[in-house]
Amino acid sequence: MPHGTVDDEWRRWIAENLTLGRSEESIVREMVSNGVASDDARHEVRAALIHPYVQGSRRLRERLKKRDWILGVYRRLSVMHREATDIERRDGLDREEFFERFYYANRPVIIAGMLDEWPALRRWSCAIFRERWGEREVEVQFGRESDPDFEINKGLLTKKMRFGDYVDLIERSSPTNDFYMTASNHSLNRRALAELWDDLKPLPPYLDPRSPDDGFLWFGPAGTITPFHHDLTNNLLAQVVGRKRILLVPLHDTPFMYNHLHCFSTVDGKRPNLEVTPAFANARFMQCTLEPGELLFLPIGWWHYVEAIEVSITVAFTNFAAPNDFFVDYTTFGGV
């Protein structure tokens, strides 16, 4: 959010918010609350309203309403199909039903009983990690709490350290989002902690064992957050240690998610501010607590917010026994 004197960054922000349909008064109020004089704020908003570039972008918004209408139809049909706000839970799920009812239908599901044979469920702990791999060098994200765009800037927040030191830090910390080992740190950590993957077993009903994709590791303290975003692939989350609270918003509710850049949303999943993101009030979200030993199928395009309730270890997979290459023709990498 720009501050102070009205410059080109403010003007871009004004144009964007007018295009998105935000009211003139709410734009002026936010500018004033950020230090812009009231008269200056009103002058800039009125100037933007008559500028041909802004008028052109607002005409484009009218065309996009057709897309939103189609998504709205899909949304209404989805609500008719399943009124529940909880994600369906299944105790085991065979291959055919998984793909027909969930993967191809773009619907999430929690599956229990499929990880019972995983040694990781019995072995993985901070004590074992420290004892067996404490001297290995790993990569971790640090400084997340001081950067409001920590997920977008994750590549700038990496730090290398002894795995044992990281485990010690997790054990003695109170809930925090300041440091987290995530899938973005995968390349180095997959090599450094190679033996960990010996404690995972194949999931042939859902995953392709011939694929080189063998999972991404997430390991952090209670309080770690993955803010609202959507992925470019279908994902299967395997919860090994600890619990996670997860909010999901369907793909068809994208118009309510303030998708400002790439796959990211400005909606605060922890404390939504409907003054800043009022359309989010229309989003239909589901929520769950993912327990150790459970799988969550996370469909492509579904917005999700994840928060660790306690020290948590998760492995994520994308190598499904069905096409999952939707990202190959994705070109919207900048602001949308």
TrEMBL record:
Pfam families with a match to the protein in the record: Cupin_8 (PF13621)
Instruction: Specify the JmjC domain's residue ranges.
Output: 192-336
Tell me the leader sequence span. none
Q: Which PROSITE patterns match?
A: JMJC
By what name is this protein known?
Answer: Cupin-like domain-containing protein
Write down the species.
Trinickia symbiotica
